[in-house]
Amino acid sequence: MNRILTFCTAIAATAFMAGCSNANKAAGGTNNEADLYKTWRMVEVDGLPVDTAGLIRPAELTFQQADSRVHGSAGCNMITGGFKLEAPNKISFTPMAATKMMCMGKMQYEDKFIGVTDKIKTWTVVDGVLTLGDTDGKTLVRLMAK
Fold it and tell me: Where does the DUF306 domain start and stop, copy by copy (predicted)?
């Protein structure tokens, strides 16, 4: 009887700690840096949902750990730049470089993304969604794992 009670208590404690861990991440808690290093598909940029229909290139970003670089596209031009992780949920980007193609009617996401990169200061990954935000907690870019 005593062993059963101990076993049940251990199971309950493990479930409780796992729940707290997920709540901590959802509230902007400690991130697992390894979760960042992959390709992400843009789903929202500065409040604008990304409609991928008709884009010249996929609206995606890839974070590379080896050289702290990010590259991809916001639908038209190729984008590249550096980033720095300053704390478990703090991030900053260097100015982004982009090719200079004009994609008529397809640059709205790119313009918004380039416009907010200097404001991005936080990151969180929860349930396969990368959220990049400002210091006040406003979501600036939302991406899904590819």
Answer: 35-143
